[in-house]
Each structure stands twice: as structure tokens, then as C-alpha cells.
Design goal:
The structure holds two protein chains of two kinds. Chain A is an all-beta fold. Helix content of chain A is about 0%, strand content about 50%. In chain B, strands 2, 4, 5, 9, 10 and 11 form a six-stranded mixed beta sheet that branches. A five-stranded antiparallel beta sheet of chain B has the order 1-3-8-7-6, with no helix packed on it. The chains are: A mainly beta, B mainly beta.
Amino acid sequence: DSGVTQTPKHLITATGQRVTLRCSPRSGDLSVYWYQQSLDQGLQFLIQYYNGEERAKGNILERFSAQQFPDLHSELNLSSLELGDSALYFCASSGYSGGAYETQYFGPGTRLLVL
Amino acid sequence: DQQVKQNSPSLSVQEGRISILNCDYTNSMFDYFLWYKKYPAEGPTFLISISSIKDKNEDGRFTVFLNKSAKHLSLHIVPSQPGDSAVYFCAAGTGNQFYFGTGTSLTVIP
């Protein structure tokens, strides 16, 4: 158990809909990262938050947004969903400074299926 | 554009033998490299890392080798154990952004 929790574990929705994925980092971790893993693809970095502020942005679509709240949990919002958004979404958290090369601890993921 | 590639989707090894997992990257600016292990229905777990100033890092049965000129890294597991059966992802990057390969599924046969 990494200490990172993600809810829900599974989500089935329809095209055009909007969903919110939730992540609680390990106790004390200030950084949260979001990744997408599509079928036969590696983990694609989406975005990082550190202590409530956006720190780094990867291949995140404009239809997707994220935020980190004062209690450090994070939410990833996916809107106008398309079939291709079906994937496993992972959240990870890391240590105290949000800096480079900190070990990231991954949650179990949320499996999203868009029908 | 895949900046990190793991060209072998799967690998089978006998228990007790060496497992060698390979990874190639394209960006010469990458200066930190990691391996993660993933079991089904779980998130990836950090295994071992190496910075670009080194060419080898060991942690118990796991050794990572880095060849910067070839932009290649490998993970050696010796001796392989059935519990090592999992998907292994390599990652490379710099700063806060890392790029992951597509993974190699390792099966260790008892």
C-alpha cells in the first residue's frame, strides 16, 4: 500500500459527459501528479501540483483540468468525454519540496470507460 | 512521439536466472532515470533509479545500467524469483517531468 488513495476505482460513463477523479496523497506529501495510461501506451504525464499551485504541465488536453485543495487532495476533471479518453488514470504523490527527482508513490488508479 | 521506448513487450525467464529488461530514450537532456514495477490492479511501485552522472546503481538483486552515449538503460534482476513477475516500466526525464515507456511484462517461471 503506497498510501495514495484514488476514488472511484472504476467509472463508466457516456461520450460528452463530465467526470471527476479524486486523489488523496500520502500523509505529508505536498506534490500530486496525474498520469494517463491508455491501452498499450506508457504512462503519460498530465500535470503536477505542489501545495495548491500548478508546478508542471504535460500532455493534458484543454478538456481536462485539475486542482489541488488546501487539504492537499487533488481532483482531475475530464469534460466532453470522448471514446479515446477511456484509460487508466493514476495519481502519484511525492515529498516535501516538489522538486526534481523525488520518488513518486502511485495510487491504484481509476479505470475510466467511456461508452 | 515516444521519447522512451521499451521494445520488448514481454520476457520469460527461469527462476534463478538473470532477467534483463531494456529501455531506450531519445532526449539527450534527460538526466534521471527510474524503473517502476507494477502488479495487476495496483499502481506502479518505485524500484530503482540512476542519475546521469553514474553508469551503474545497485540495490540488492536489482542493478540498473546507464549507457548515455547509446541512450540506453537496462535493469538486471539476479537471481530472478517468481515474485518478480510483473510489468516493469522505465522512465526518463529531467526536473519534474518524466516520460514512461510502455512496459515489459516479466514472467519468472518456477
